[in-house]
Write a structure and sequence with these properties.
seven-stranded mixed beta sheet; 393 residues; six-stranded mixed beta sheet; alpha/beta
């Protein structure tokens, strides 16, 4: 695996030098359009042919996240096809961050016999919606962003993730608020989605045990004006915790705080990690992924991503890792003289043991699909809107 990763990095460097164009398959109204991510595949001279699906938030308020994930999936696919001499193509499915839409996309993927595995979906609520369908189809699916702890209790036997889970994130973030921010009173607001309510459940007991007064509020994810909610923030509340997924909502919440001259600090979870969208100075954001621009071994990947797609955050790299795992599984099946299928690709993914990865750590999975030794990272937003990693987080 390590040698293949080095070859893939070399291939990425070659792509940057060649100034390759975007391979996005955008512009179609279909929820599952075949991506043109075959710029590398078309050059591959091999009989190792397979297709994978990618479920992402490609349109709507959170599309900035989904597009970043799609770009990194395409980047991984192109480099892996070149490195492994495979011909793997990508089908895109737009979930719009909705469980019902994710079910529709999943049904379309399952009905397509060419698709042997899926990358995504982005959110935990979509994983819960499609998990039973994927299990019945024997289809492996790997998310680079779904973090609810309950997803890996065994009820979704074909699910994997390349990020850690909220049972790690929630306590880690809550402990930082208690030990470093020294809040005596705070507000925590869920957006009525399973991702959000799960994090609230993990964090509130730690706050109450520390003697912090907690005001737990709830809003709909579709809310766009938080003036009435901000009005409830008292001078004693020094922190407002927002375990949300729509960064634009957190930005508006911050504007409403400023309009009402409230000074509480916003603490967001990984769903709000969106440089360029959520930029409220002094806020904190945790993330399941590292800043790969600070990892020397990822220099070629970072340059390629910047060259092809512009700036990016931490949502893309874990999806790159997820796509790479699927690509390597398909290549391994072919090297064993077999035709890639859902069953043998699933079996190979279960045995993944990559000594290094774009995430700066090895990748292997527990029996229930969790990333072994996964962790979260904490960032603070500077006055210029930059996300600055907090050392040791």
């Amino acid at each position: 695996m390590e040698r293949r990763m080095i070859i893939a990095l070399t291939a990425i460097g070659a792509l940057v030098a060649a100034g390759c164009s975007s391979s996005s398959g955008g512009g179609s109204s279909s929820s599952t359009t075949s991506s043109a991510s075959t710029s590398g595949a078309s050059a591959a001279t091999t009989s190792c042919v397979a297709s994978i699906g990618m479920e992402g938030v490609l349109t709507g308020p959170a599309a900035v996240v989904g597009q970043e994930q799609l770009h990194f999936a395409e980047l991984a696919l192109t480099s892996d096809n070149l490195a492994n001499k495979t011909n793997i193509t990508l089908f895109q499915g737009d979930t719009q961050l909705g469980p019902a839409e994710a079910v529709t996309v999943t049904q379309q993927f399952i009905s397509n016999p060419k698709i042997v595995a899926v990358v995504g979906p982005v959110g935990s609520q979509q994983v819960e919606a499609v998990g039973p369908l994927m299990a019945r189809a024997g289809m492996a699916f790997i998310s680079g962003s779904a973090t609810v702890a309950a997803l890996t209790t065994g009820k979704y036997p074909t699910f994997f993730r390349t990020v850690s889970k909220d049972s790690v994130q929630g306590p880690q973030d809550a402990s930082y608020i208690v030990k470093t921010l020294h809040s005596k009173a705070l507000m925590i607001v869920d957006d009525q989605e399973v991702y959000s309510t799960g994090l609230v459940s993990a964090m509130v007991p730690i706050f109450t045990a520390a003697g912090i007064t907690v005001d737990h509020e709830s809003v709909q994810q579709t809310t766009t004006d938080f003036s009435s909610l901000v009005a409830k923030v008292t001078p004693a509340m020094t922190v407002v915790v927002l375990p949300w997924q729509v960064a634009a909502n957190a930005q508006q919440f911050g504007r409403n705080l400023a309009q009402q001259h409230k000074t509480a600090v916003i603490f967001g979870t990984d769903g709000l990690f969106s440089p360029g969208t959520f930029t409220i100075a002094g806020s904190y954001v945790s993330s399941f992924g590292p800043d790969i621009t600070a990892i020397p071994a990822d220099a070629a990947i970072a340059r390629a991503a910047l060259h092809k797609y512009g700036s990016f955050g931490t949502f893309g790299p874990p999806t790159f890792a997820a796509t790479h795992v699927v690509d390597e599984a398909i290549a391994s099946v072919c090297k064993a003289g077999q035709t890639p299928s859902r069953s043998n690709v699933l079996a190979t993914i279960k045995n993944t043991n990559e000594p290094t990865s774009i995430l700066g750590q090895p990748i292997s999975f527990t029996s229930h699909g969790d990333l072994v030794n996964g962790r979260f990272f904490l960032f603070k937003i500077t006055s210029t809107g930059k996300y600055q990693l907090i050392p040791g987080s």
